[in-house]
């Protein structure tokens, strides 16, 4: 009888019921739309439905429409007891602020941070690829790594172990899926030789195998194949690297394990067999991953079930600050399937909090800003209008303020730990902001007239541990 696992499953079940109402409430939001994380049409309707985004006069007119619809359709019999019953046809959604033909005072955002090593227009693309690997790292079988290291690997002219491992593990995850779907990559008599070259992939052959894989299906993006045939991949620019990685991540997101992970309710779906001996029995569950163990298989062996939360040795070694301590509570409960944005400002720019940074993306997705330090964040907040134009956005930002500040402080302290004797970019940036605040206080000047900061130290962001450091930390489960 698997005693322990029964206990844990029932516990999980109770939690499942607990969050059940939340799941029903969020309805369609819990469906995952892969590949549409950024800038899709549903987001616009979110904003349109949000009464907080409207100006007071519009809210009034909305009420008026509501009253009319009551009398027009005389639905009083339906709407006596329950507020949940929809009364008559929905009033037309008000236009979002930025689409209305009215003069809006322009909202000038503070200059973007520049601490990530990648050129700033790529920052959000990098973050979106990084987030998939962070969120599904158990399925990709990658150890956690920081976005700063990922940026360094992307910008490095040489081939780094981090970049190699990322490509190989994504490709392996895709090949596992092809295997389970019994895909043939060529004529039957060549099947074995093709499979051998695919599965015996190593750090030297992966790029060639990736090219072969791309050639196997004419429906795959020709641009990606083009990069792999014309360039000496991965010895190319960041744009090409991101295009190839985006393809791999997209392919990975449509595999069955990811789909199962999305559909599963509750935080963790535990394995059936012990990770060490692969047998059944009384199994001890890890608090943070799906692994289960016999008490005697754990190193060192246990006699009694631990009274406190217990973590397996892999999770213990994977406690990477800046990654595993920045997981949202929604994600921990298993109800977050896609990254949610905070809302829109008056120009329709979207605000995200990803990888310890506040990202802002304009409506067309052509311009990106991001803010890394608490001071930068507060400057953005100070420019938003919480009474009229950015009511809902400010509400969301203030609601999450504590967590945002905690994670941003973490970035600053991580930077300080790694910067050695040098001054970091973030310190200079903060000092600049302090100086400007002081000046504007003295002169009574409006903040908008400030000059933009020009002092930018080349590569001062020293948050990146070198790629050599990361190399050893990689392990496959
Ligand atoms: Zn065992
Ligand atoms: Zn674990």
From TrEMBL:
Q: Look up keyword Zinc-finger and say if it applies.
A: yes
Q: Where is the composition biased (Low complexity)?
A: 72-82
Classification via InterPro entries: BPTF (IPR038028), DDT_dom (IPR018501), WHIM2_dom (IPR028941), Zinc_finger_PHD-type_CS (IPR019786), Znf_FYVE_PHD (IPR011011), Znf_PHD (IPR001965), Znf_PHD-finger (IPR019787), Znf_RING/FYVE/PHD (IPR013083)
MF annotations from Gene Ontology: RNA polymerase II cis-regulatory region sequence-specific DNA binding; zinc ion binding
Q: Which GO terms describe its cellular component?
A: NURF complex
Compositional bias per record (Acidic residues), positions renumbered to this chain? 468-477
Bias type Basic and acidic residues, positions:
432-459
Checking SUPFAM superfamilies in the record gives: FYVE/PHD zinc finger
Spell out the protein name for this chain.
Answer: PHD-type domain-containing protein
Keyword Nucleus listed: yes
Which PROSITE patterns would you find in this protein's record? DDT, ZF_PHD_1, ZF_PHD_2
Q: Where does the record locate the signal sequence feature?
A: 1-16
GO biological process, any: regulation of transcription by RNA polymerase II
Where can this protein be found?
Nucleus
Start and end residues of each stretch annotated as Disordered: 39-104, 432-477
Provide an example Pfam family for this protein: WSD
Keywords from UniProt, A to Z, are: Metal-binding, Nucleus, Signal, Zinc, Zinc-finger
Q: Which organism is it from?
A: Phlebotomus papatasi
